[in-house]
Design a protein that fits this description.
single chain, TIM Barrel, nine-stranded mixed β-sheet, 11 strands, globular
């Protein structure tokens, strides 16, 4: 299990190699303005760290749209459409599964895409974050049909493109343990995920070009989770090797590529 000192040593290794350790931050389940989102945005703004809110189009409230207008660091991604489970009991939770006709699912995604584009303009990036990190593989190749050119799941990507015209931009650290009730997974376990992906990138065991992603869930944060997230941001922003990025550059020249 990793520690803060091991994270520092790993980042030092990037600096010594003349490499830039790119990090990015995604927070899921954004819908309405609340104190937790305000706390996230305040933290991101204070350190000028890009924050990508995965917003649920069907649940999006006007107060959240208005509140984000003043932030220079917030981007918005698409978190499904309504975050509703359509799978039968016992099959796990799926909004974007094969339990409904593809035309219906794609139609919802298209409506969600239009809603977020209208609400957020250039702040909205065409990246799909599937609820519950599940999507029917048959839908992925159709995402460009509704304007979505990137897919964000979990774990180190094995290939840059999930399908023609759909780049993979995953998260690699979720500091929350979900089974048995949401709670902080622990500093060592969370850092192990970050250090593990960074080390794999630096050593050529993973795609060095894939930024290492932090995935938070503001609605499920306890005090320990908040402390970890704040400490991670504060400890990394000043390191010479670290570059917290927005995903705009990762989306350039995606159309038609594979």
């Amino acid at each position: 299990m990793a520690s803060w000192s091991e994270l520092e040593r790993e980042l030092d290794g990037w600096a010594e190699a003349g490499l830039s350790a790119t990090l990015w931050w995604r927070d899921d389940d954004a819908a309405a303005l609340n104190p937790d989102i305000e706390r996230l945005v305040t933290l991101a703004d204070a350190h000028r760290v890009p924050l990508h809110l995965a917003a649920i189009p069907r649940q999006l409230s006007d107060d959240l749209v208005a509140a984000l207008e003043g932030s220079a660091v917030v981007r918005v991604l698409q978190h499904g459409y309504a975050h509703v489970d359509h799978a039968p009991e016992g099959a796990g939770s799926w909004e974007l599964g094969d339990h409904r006709p593809k035309a219906v699912v794609l139609g919802e995604l298209a409506r969600g895409f239009a809603r977020l584009g209208q609400a957020f303009g250039e702040r909205f990036l065409p990246v799909l974050v599937p609820p519950w990190t599940r999507i029917d593989p048959g839908l992925i190749a159709r995402l460009p049909d509704v304007g979505l050119v990137a897919l964000s799941m979990e774990g180190a990507r094995t290939t840059r493109f999930a399908a023609r015209g759909v780049v993979t931009l995953n998260a690699h650290c979720d500091p929350i343990k979900w089974k048995g009730g949401a709670r902080f997974t622990g500093t060592e376990r969370a850092l192990d995920e970050i250090v593990g992906h960074l080390a794999a990138r630096r050593q050529g065991r993973a795609d060095v070009a894939e930024p290492t992603g932090l995935c938070t869930h503001h609605l499920a944060h306890d005090g320990e989770t908040w402390h970890f997230v704040e400490a991670l941001v504060e400890r990394t922003v000043s390191h010479e090797a670290v570059r917290w990025i927005g995903l705009e550059a990762e989306l350039e020249h995606v159309e038609g590529a594979c």
